[in-house]
Design goal:
Length: 218
């Protein structure tokens, strides 16, 4: 699994990342969502550079121009609800992509262990296509792994791009082990933060991305 940390190179993405972390700016949920969307747009453009391209001709008012366009069949997936802003930003770039939606949530089982429940999947066939999964926080890797396995029931993709705002080394190691470090998977993140706290939240992180985007839940 290839890991790409976009914050290792200076760009405007770091400005958006700073704002979504800032506890004062976070009070404006509209601005928080918008910054996550802009991170999604930047990430999608960087990801687009890795796709396959073919030359095509386009008729202009004055002649014929040659343009290279992506030939990959894309499926853009997200995990409800926190993933929606990142997904929205990426969809603005990949506006021709098919779409998939999943629900997954944390719960503590009878043994006191954290587990992920994936209940809802709406997806097209992903057989032979390029699958992009957008979810802002890759804390433990459990939700992403459960969602990925659910999507595999709809076919085997040619390549998988996992896109998140902030990841942890623990989650990266977990996904590497779960996917047997497959070379057809690429992880894109805006930052990698060092640790998880006792509640499995990323530190320093930014808090709960779903609550910051859409309000607290019961």
């Amino acid at each position: 699994m290839k890991v790409i940390n976009l914050s290792e190179q200076n760009s405007v993405l770091n400005h958006y990342l700073r704002e979504i972390r800032d506890v004062n700016i976070q009070k404006d949920s509209l601005r928080f969502r918008h910054n996550i969307e802009r991170i999604g747009e930047v990430m999608a453009i960087e990801l687009s550079k890795t796709l396959h391209y073919e030359q095509t001709n386009v008729q202009t008012p004055l002649g014929v121009a040659q343009v290279n366009i992506a030939s990959d069949s894309l499926v853009l997936a997200t995990i409800l609800r926190a993933g929606l802003p990142l997904y929205t930003g990426m969809l603005r770039v990949f506006d021709h992509a098919e779409n998939a939606f999943l629900s997954a949530y944390r719960r503590v089982n009878d043994k006191g262990e954290l587990e992920i429940v994936a209940e809802y999947v709406a997806a097209p066939s992903i057989e032979g296509k390029t699958l992009i999964i957008a979810d802002p926080m890759l804390a433990t890797g459990l939700s992403m792994d459960a969602s990925y396995l659910s999507l595999l029931k709809h076919g085997r993709p040619s390549h998988v791009h996992i896109c998140c705002t902030i990841a942890t080394p623990q989650a990266i190691d977990y996904l590497r082990e779960a996917t047997h470090d497959a070379d057809d998977i690429t992880l894109w993140c805006a930052a990698i933060d060092p640790i998880l706290n006792e509640h499995k939240y990323i530190v320093p992180g930014l808090g709960d991305a779903g609550d910051l985007s859409f309000g607290a839940k019961l």
